[in-house]
Every structure is written in C-alpha cells, then in structure tokens.
Amino acid sequence: MGLSLLTVIYLLGSVTFIVGLKMLSHPETARKGNLLAAAGMTIAIFGTIFLYEEDGVKLHNYAWIFGGLAIGTITGLMAAKKVKMTAMPEMVSLFNGMGGACAMLISVVEFDHIYQVHKATESMSLSAAVPFGHYLTIIAGAIIGSISFAGSVVAWGKLNGRIKDFSFRGQHIFNLILFAAILMAAFFLTYPSDVQHARMPFYITVGLALLYGIFFVLPIGGADMPVVISLLNSFTGVAAACGGFLYNNQVMLTGGILVGAAGTLLTILMCKAMNRSLVNVLVGSFGGKAGAASASGGSQGSYKEISISDAAVCMAYANKVIIVPGYGLAVAQAQHVCHELEKLLEEKGVTVAYAIHPVAGRMPGHMNVLLAESDVSYDKLMEMEQANDEFKTTDVVLVLGANDVVNPAAKTDPASPIYGMPVLEVEQAKTIIVNKRSMKPGYAGIENELFFHPRTSMLFGDAKAALQKLVTEIKNI
C-alpha cells in the first residue's frame, strides 16, 4: 500500500513539473507555475521520507533528514529574499552548482555503498556487486555532476567579479586532453577486475571531472556567460536524471529530464540568436581578450552628449519610443522608474515599447524578469526580430545600459569577435539616446560603434538617476 501510494505521489509530482514548466512560458502564469512545481516537489519529498522502503526497511534517520531540510530551506529563503536583481544570475549559477554537487555526491555515496557491502561479504566481483547499467549510471552521474558543480561555481565567481577571465596558450588543447583523460579513466573504471580495483579510478575520475569543470569555464568570457549558465543547467538536469535511474525514482527522473532538455534547447536557441555554434562558444573565449579586437574610442571618431532637458523634449514630442534595457538598468535598479517613464510618455500620447535581445543581461530572460518585477505589460515586450522591423519607424530609441547587443559592428566589421551575431538594429531609428556611466566597453570588452553614430547622443550617468531626472523634466513639459 505504501509503495502504491508513493508511486501515485511521484506521478502527481511529475505532472506538476510538466504543467508548471508549461506555465513558466508566459509571465502571467509563471509565478503560479513555479508554485505548482514547488508544491509537487514538496509532496514528493515528504512522500519519499515517510513512504519509501527498501527490502522492507523504511527511512529512520529523521533527525539528519529534517535537519538538512531545515538548513537548506532557511538558507534558500534568506538568499532569495536578499538577492538583488543584478545578482540573480550568479545566484542561479550557484544554486545550479549545488544541484550538480548533489548528483555527484549521490554517485559517490552509491559507489562507496557498493564497495563497503562487497568488501564485508568478501565478494569483490564487480558483476556480482551491481548490474552493469546501474554501474554506468553511477559513473555518468559522478562525471556530469562534478563538471556542473565546478563549472557553476566558477561561473558564479566570474559573474560577481571574484574570478577573472583566465586563459593561457594552448588551453583548449589542455582541456581536450583533460577531457580525454576523464574518458580514459572512466573506461578503465568500467572494466576493472573487482570493486577494489575500481575504487581508485573512480575517485581519480571525479577529481579530473572537477578540474575539467574549472578549466572548462575559466576562459569563456563576457557575453557568452548566459550560454554557459544554460549549458551547465542542462548538465545538472542530466546528472539528476542519473540519480533518478539509480533510485528508480520517477519524480527525480522526470525533473532531471525536464531540466536537461529545457537547458539544452535554451542553449541551442541562444547560440542561434548569437549566430554562433556551441563549439564556437566553448572554444572561442569570446570576450576573454577585451580590447584585442576593439578599436580605441578616438579611432572611431567623436561622440556627442545630450542634456536631460533635450532628451526629455525629444521623447515627450515623439510619436513612438522604444526602450532597450540592458545590464546597466539592472545594476541601477531602475526598472521601476523606467516603468514610470513609460506611463508618463503614454499619458502624453507617445507609443512606448521595449526591445529585448535574447542574450541581454547576464542570464537567459534576465531583462524579461527585470521588467516583470516592475509590472511592465508583457504585450509591450518585443523580441529582436519584431523590434528590428519597428526601429525604422521609431522616433526615439532609449538604450539603457545595453552595449554589445546594439553594436553595429556585428554587421559591419568582419574582424570583430561578435561579427555575425544578430543585434538590435537601433541605428535605424531617427534619434538614438544611449545612457551609460562612461564610454567604457561592455561586458564583452568590445568598443561599440553605435556610440559614434551620427544620430546617437550619449546621456551619461547612473540609469536610475538619469531616468528620474527625465521623468521630472517631462512632467514640466
């Protein structure tokens, strides 16, 4: 009866994951979808704690289980409540790394369990110790989980500035050799004569996978980080699915497959949005050599500034304004005052919309989440293809902290690292106002030709302060 009820609970949890994921596809239902999936996971966790049994023995170490749940829940709640929107990508990366670590530890614990049991029974034959498919799943979970954990921690450090881009001559060859060593160690691990001989290769494999995860992410720079985060997320999903196989846990298997598939599809879509292959992203070190492919500001020509009052007049008397949000908007926490500006312009009869680039910000959907936080209507968010059609008939484009995703060099300069990457073609608008703190290059370390465009005016300063001044000026017009 307990097993039957547990199976129903796992089925219910799996359904909530699928339905919740579907609801996440639209901002109006995303919050409910997240809560639904969380409820399904909660039911599955408590069902496992109280109903799971193996060989007639149920779980009994409740003090450790609930102690761990309490620590994790409190830590997660505090982190989620305190995190700033600008730090959201690094938190996502860190939490994803914790998922990879869990998958790795599951494989380590399962392997050690096999070793201890068969050492005690003096039956060291590997084939007698564990079915071959089960054993392969342990190895796969250990390797993929280790890479995901180490890579996600490095990505977290790079996003918050603690770890800088690092590369050396021949690093890609070193990475390939390291990956080959992992496969070789796994091969020897797969066919040992007994469990005793498998122990050392197993831990060597885990160690090499952790090392590979570090060097895998270290050279990848700048604008490629959203792709890397998405890819690492898919790794964690696959590693979690391995855990589901090991324990014959349907809800864990379903969740892992959904995360792995969603992360893989998102990675492919972002690579398509950047007009680059995944291999190119992983070996290209895009943005890792800041300034190497960028011209100096002087060689691009001169730029012109615009005052707050002039910018306010341009926007107040425009027919159509498109706002392009970027990481600078997130850093300044200016999404709410940006929404206030939008409403004020609409009261004056101006049509206002937002142009969202697929890889703007530091993680997939960063700008969408940012604007949703300030209650910007989803109908006002235009994807890149739609926005590029609208720029030709737009009076004013206001670029708020976006840089690489509006750089015309992607279309005009074959020597640029971003050449061929689809960008928002804001230069087609009648007037372009770019808000930045300074003329420094963006996250990818590439000079932006847009800043020197004849129709571009620079509005320097913090995005929130600049928008507040714009709102004040427009109210007085």
TrEMBL record:
Membrane topology designation: Multi-pass membrane protein
Name the record gives this protein: NAD(P) transhydrogenase subunit beta
EC class name: translocase
Function: The transhydrogenation between NADH and NADP is coupled to respiration and ATP hydrolysis and functions as a proton pump across the membrane.
Domain NADP transhydrogenase beta-like: 7-472
Protein source organism: Sediminibacterium ginsengisoli
EC identifiers of the protein: 7.1.1.1
Catalytic activity: NAD(+) + NADPH + H(+)(in) = NADH + NADP(+) + H(+)(out)
Residue ranges crossing the lipid bilayer per the database entry: 6-24, 36-53, 59-80, 92-115, 135-157, 173-190, 202-220, 227-247, 253-271
Highest taxon listed in the record's lineage: Bacteria
Pfam families, alphabetized: PNTB
Location in or out of the cell: Cell inner membrane
GO cellular component, one term: plasma membrane
Keywords associated with the record: Cell inner membrane, Cell membrane, Membrane, NAD, NADP, Translocase, Transmembrane, Transmembrane helix
